[in-house]
Amino acid sequence: MKVLLIACSLVPCLGALPVYGQSTYPNKPIRVICGMAPGGGMDTLARALSQPLSEVLGQQVAVDNRLGAGGIIAAEMSAKAAPDGYTWLVGSAAAFGVIPNLMGKLPYDPVKDFAPVGLYATFSYALDVHPSLPVRSVKDLIAFAKARPGQINYGSAGNGTTTHIATEQFLVQAGIKIIHVPYKGNTPAMTALMSGEVSMVLDPVLTTAPHARGGRIRALGVTTLKRSALLPDVPTIDEGGLKGYEAANWQAIFVPAGTPREIIERLNKAINAVMNRPEMKERLLRQGAEPLTGSPEDLGHLVSSELTKFSRIVKEAHLRID
Fold first, then answer.
1. Which of 6, 29, 109, 251 is at 20 to 30 A from 300, Cα to Cα?
2. Domain 124-222 top-level CATH class
3. For residue 9, is pLDDT > 80?
């Protein structure tokens, strides 16, 4: 009887215990997997987000760069992580739009293997050339390349990345042929351009600006229909003569499928709160990006539309990686 009375007296206490994944989350550091190299545009924006999120969530939010295969390695690692909210993926148009349309088989499914959390930034690229190339405008570049089909090369952040597809989109619209040289990230591709190893790259405006001002590379145009505040004297590619050309990238946070909804909602609110801070908006604008907010459903709809859009672009450029 005494045992029964003791057991019954414990029931209220047991009911008061917190439910894992709700009030106890997060109770340890969070890893944010990024598939691009340190110092590049994608990595820089991810780190800009992780710092204030550490304060909001009360736990360290640390970026973990996992390079290779244009972000596929990072995506696969994230998809296979425990769905407990402690492993995030920095997703972009590449992993969730471009690569699924390029690759015959992937080690992850962009829709089934991930749960969208929230958007936080979009940014443009600059079309850069080595100073030794005798061109001063987009029109000059197109004319130069047409006269030398297959004799010029360009670098990208890797096969299937947005810089790869955006450059191929440019080549198709311009009617020119330039050889592709893939690297493991935007930073190695820019290093190759400055050394003269390649003649052209599309690089985030943020990392292009200081090199352009220093004369190490020449920026011919930006990929959006609006000029960048970081490169105000550089025309858009549309202005430069290739009418209708436009390309941009976005960044968002994803978690493995099966992550509890209450954790996803907690993270979405935290990301939106950080991105709505005036100082955060100013910081991103200084880095050549525009801050974004939205619901997990908004991000899910974006992934769906990106898959459709890049399917068309890949077919037009006759691209395929098996």
1. 29
2. alpha beta
3. no
Tell me the DSSP string of 158-182: STTSHHHHHHHHHHHHHT---EEEE
Confidence of residue 19 (pLDDT cuts 50, 70, 90): very low
**Cβ count within 10 A of residue 285:** 14
Question: What backbone torsions phi and psi does residue 223 show, to the nearest 5 degrees?
Answer: -85, -10
CA angle 144, 206, 242 (to 5 degrees): 35
Nearest to 220 by CA among 129, 84, 132: 129
| Band of pLDDT at residue 68, cut at 50, 70 and 90 | confident
pTM: 0.78
How far apart (Å, rounded) are the C-alpha atoms in residues 172 and 180? 13
Closest CA to 95 of 82, 80, 117, 78: 78
What are the sequence ranges of the domains in the chain? Answer: 30-122+249-316, 124-222
**CATH topology assigned to domain 30-122+249-316:** D-Maltodextrin-Binding Protein; domain 2 (3.40.190)
103, 108, 113, 115: CA torsion to nearest 10: -70
Most confident listed range (3-7, 126-130, 241-245, 316-320): 126-130
